[in-house]
Amino acid sequence: MKYNKEAKPGAPDKGSRVLQLSVLFFLLCGFSFYLGGIFCSEKTRFETIDVKQITVPSAKESMAAPLQIKAVSFPECSPDYQDYTPCTDPRRWRKYGLHRLTFMERHCPPIFERKECLVPPPDGYKSPIKWPNSRDKCWYRNVPYDWINKQKSNQHWLRKEGDKFLFPGGGTMFPSGVSAYVDLMQDLIPEMKDGTIRTAIDTGCGVASWGGDLLDRGILTVSLAPRDNHEAQVQFALERGIPAILGIISTQRLPFPSKSFDMAHCSRCLIPWTEFGGIYLLEIHRILRPGGFWVLSGPPVNYEHRWRGWNTTIEEQKTDYEKLQTLLTSLCFKLYNKKDDIAVWQKLSDNSCYDKLSEPDTYPGKCDDSLEPDSAWYTPLRSCVVVPNPKHKRSSLDTIPKWPERLHVAPERISDVHGGSASALKHDDGKWKKRLQHYKKLLPALGTDKIRNVMDMNTVYGGLAAASIDDPLWVMNVVSSYATNTLPVVYDRGLIGTFHDWCEAFSTYPRTYDLLHLDGLFTAESHRCEMKYVLLEMDRILRPNGYAIIRESSYFVDAIATIAKGMRWGCRKEDTEYGIDKEKILICQKKLWYSSNQSSR
Question: pLDDT tens for residues 209-225?
Answer without folding.
Answer: 999 999 999 999 999 99
